Amino acid sequence: MSLLGVENLWVKFPTRQGVFDAVRGVSFSLGQERLGIVGESGSGKSMTGRAILRLIRNPGIVEADHINLEGKNLLDMSERAMRDVRGKQISMVMQDPKFSLNPVTTVGAQIIEAYRQHNRVSKAEAHKKALEMLEAVSIRDPERVMRAYPHEVSGGMGQRIMIAMMLIPDPKILIADEPTSALDVSVQRQVLNIMDGLVKERGMGLIFISHDLNLVSEFCDRVLIMYSGRIVEVCDADKLHEAKHPYTRGLLDSLPRLDQEETHLSVLNRDPAWSDTESVRG
């Protein structure tokens, strides 16, 4: 079942040198699956996620044939209607989520606010729901964490708090923009397991944006590889290391390997023709 359909998405920014195309003709669909989007910094990954939620600020321009959420085109909605979509139907965990928390408000107050924004419930009921959500993301002593301020929690706990806040309205889709990039390997794995469990239990769609090809190949179902604002290749995640496009091969070859000695890592040699090819459908 398709939850989201994006057709011919462009994100443009006017500059003194002319219009810069950050995302160029991207098309893909998302079902009840874990969809990875990978590429170098500046390839358009984060812009794609933000454009779906219409979070590109002026003077940025978002254009598309459609961005359909279960048959409804988000581009046709008013800003007021989009506020109901954000959080309730599509949530987004930004890069380094801990710094998205309000530093002068307790963790509990922020989670409760996120829940009551889309649900007409009492504070007591919202408080109970917030505790349940913190327990769902494996936070011990949730009552203590509810009373804490963001600076009083660790980086890994901050990530889990933000995931809890984004999932408490029970959205259909979660967009996670490198949510584990600032974490050590053990905490990273724990956060991924939490996200994976919640996605499976709720039948959600997940867009997982990352630059880590090994992580995406293990965690996701499908992968879109982006270069210069376009999708250059689409792979099943478990077959990512069999990718054919020279850009994807270059990224894979530049990764360090633990199973064999290497005197130096390969350098990615870019071909200008990659930027001119049409975007592949994801």
Ranges where pLDDT stays below 50 over 5 or more residues in a row are none
Number of helices: 10
As a percent range, the share of strand residues is: 15-25%
What coarse outline follows from CA principal-axis ratios? globular
Secondary structure: helix percent: 25-40%
Strand count? 11
Q: Write out the strand line-up for the largest beta sheet, numbering strands in chain order.
A: 7-8-9-3-10-11
Main sheet summary: 6 strands, mixed
Could you report the average pLDDT, rounded to the nearest whole number? 87
What can you see in these coordinates?
The mean pLDDT is about 85. With about 280 residues, the protein is of the alpha/beta class. It has helices spanning about 45-50, 80-85, 105-115, 125-135, 140-145, 155-165, 185-200, 215-220, 245-255, 275, and strands at about 5-15, 20-30, 35-40, 60-65, 65-70, 70-75, 90-95, 175, 205-210, 220-225, 230-235. The strands form 2 sheets. Strands 7-8-9-3-10-11 form a 6-stranded mixed beta sheet, with helices on both faces. Strands 1, 2, 4, 5 and 6 form a 5-stranded antiparallel beta sheet that branches.
Name the descriptors.
6-stranded mixed sheet; globular; 11 strands; single chain; alpha/beta; 282 residues
Topology diagram in text:
Blueprint: E1 4-15, E2 18-30, E3 34-38, H1 45-52, E4 61-63, E5 66-69, E6 72-73, H2 79-85, E7 90-93, H3 107-116, H4 123-136, H5 142-147, H6 155-167, E8 173-177, H7 185-202, E9 205-210, H8 213-219, E10 222-227, E11 230-236, H9 246-253, H10 273-276
Parallel strand pairs: 3-9, 3-10, 7-8, 8-9
Antiparallel strand pairs: 1-2, 1-4, 1-5, 5-6, 10-11
